[in-house]
Amino acid sequence: MSESYSDVVQTARDYYNSEDADNFYFLIWGGEDIHIGLYQSESEAIATASRRTVEKLADLLPAMGPEARILDIGSGYGGASRYLAKRFGCKVTALNLSEKENARNREMSAEAGVGELVDVVDGSFEAIPLEDASCDAVWSQDAILHSGKREQVIAEVARVLKPGGHFVFTDPMESGHCGRDDLEPVLARIHLSTLGSPQFYEKAAKANGLEFVEWQEKTPQLIRHYSRVAEELSGQRSTLSGKVSEGYIDRMLTGLENWVKAGEKGCLAWGFLHFKKPE
After folding, report:
1. Dist CA 116 CA 114 (whole Å)
2. Domain ranges in the chain?
3. Is-contact 128 154, C-beta < 8 A?
4. Which of 27, 116, 186, 224 has a 20 to 30 A CA-CA distance from 263?
5. Separation between Cα atoms, residue 97 and residue 86, nearest integer Å
6. Distance between CA 9 and CA 39 in Å, rounded?
7. Is the dihedral of CA 13, 15, 18, 24 positive or negative?
8. Burial 192-205 (b: 16+ CB within 10 A, else e)
9. Per residue in 221-261, pLDDT tens?
């Protein structure tokens, strides 16, 4: 384990490397895209809604050519990295802490014909292994919450961005409208003591010299997504035998219910955050 990994990040690494988690996220959550989706109907496929999130978030970035470099932090199975590589024809560094996910990413990127464009790197976004001012854009989807040093993550993003570079991301956050007791069931499930908030990220970005561009709130999609994942998991439970343990499924269904309840109480926030490094 790298000494740069915080306890919280190491916990997340162990979790996503587990057989249960790897099979659940790959088979149920959305396959190559394991983040919150943008749904056009209550019953839309998770993978379809999740890919829509990638497409809409990418619309916030300026046009880029083959000479550009995008960094995807917390890249999971690399669905977004492959999409960005195909859309812009540029190099994408997919930085992720789970070796199991990264192995799937390398295999799928090669099969998709973008293996030479997507560079999959094992590592933590708390200590990004890239040089200063080396990236035209930094991208992240629902990953930064797993850091115990979120201010450090933002500082690292600012460090590797080129002047004029863009930082776009999503993250499950707290709204600031609820007390700790309301959030505790969610936090306990994911082994965290806090979540960030839109205000937190805006303050951290400003402290590191990044300019706020926009916040597109889409919190109802978070509630819908966790509800859809719970429905899909329940519906496919029998097909997961031998791949995902019964205990994991039970804990996941409880955790998903807690996310939905917290969202319906108005305790959570989710959407698109966009910052830019001054030229």
Report:
1. 5
2. 7-276
3. no
4. 27
5. 23
6. 29
7. negative
8. beebbbbebbeebb
9. 999 999 999 999 999 999 999 999 999 999 999 999 999 99
Biggest alpha carbon–alpha carbon distance for the chain: 54
Around Cβ 155, how many Cβ atoms within 10 Å? 18
pLDDT band per the 50, 70, 90 thresholds, residue 5 = low
C-alpha span between 230 and 251 (Å, rounded): 11
Q: Mean pLDDT across the chain, nearest whole number?
A: 94
DSSP 3-state of 16: helix
Q: What is the pLDDT of residue 2?
A: 41
Residues 6+ apart with CB under 8 A from 217: 198, 269, 270, 271
Q: Are 109 and 115 in contact (CB under 8 A)?
A: yes
In whole angstroms, what is the distance from residue 119 CA to residue 174 CA? 32
Contact 178, 262 (CB under 8 A): yes
Query: Looking at domain 7-276, does it have CATH number 3.30.70.2750?
Result: no
- For 103-128, write each residue's pLDDT tens digit: 999 999 999 999 999 999 999 999 99
- 148: tokens are 């115990």
Per this entry, what is the length of the chain? 279
Contact 32, 78 (CB under 8 A): yes
pLDDT in tens, 38-51: 999 999 999 999 99
pTM to 2 decimals? Answer: 0.93
